[in-house]
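Table S2 (text version). Query chain:
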Amino acid sequence: MRGFPAILAAVICLFALLPAGLPGPAGGEEGKCVPTAEDAEGPFYKPGAPERLSTGSGLAISGEVLSWPGCRPIPGARVEWWHADRSGEYVDSLRGAQKTGPKGGYAFTTLPPGIYPGRPPHIHFKVFAPGHKPLTTQLYLRGGEKAVRFVLVVEAEKRNR
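Corresponding structure-token output:
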């Protein structure tokens, strides 16, 4: 029960940040979304991350999972994330996952990622959505951010286009 106030504060923070007018999806020609660039999974991915709303506090991440082509929200997509702690170590407590809501949205709080030797601060993401290719990517941070909007655009399998 001791962790409940921290979780409640994280959830309140997320709901306060969602309408903050943060940037939207990555745009292509004529404002259409484009698939999110693939990036390295790295050696520290573990399948089966626990579903949770928070892996710490200090950084709020939110966004949507969209389908390409068409830019439609994907409800029920699984979004997994993992990153290094402040000392640069990958630990299980900084791994999480959640299913997107009816409008394709996801939101979680976490600690700001530490610097893994030789790399800028980053958070790994893996997205699984029915009828779409799995996506593995990374969100690179500049440092000092308190809230980041990260829209994930996944490519439909050819038979579903």
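Notes on Table S2: The domain at 4-160 is CATH 2.60.130.10 (Protocatechuate 3,4-Dioxygenase, subunit A). The chain has one domain: 4-160.
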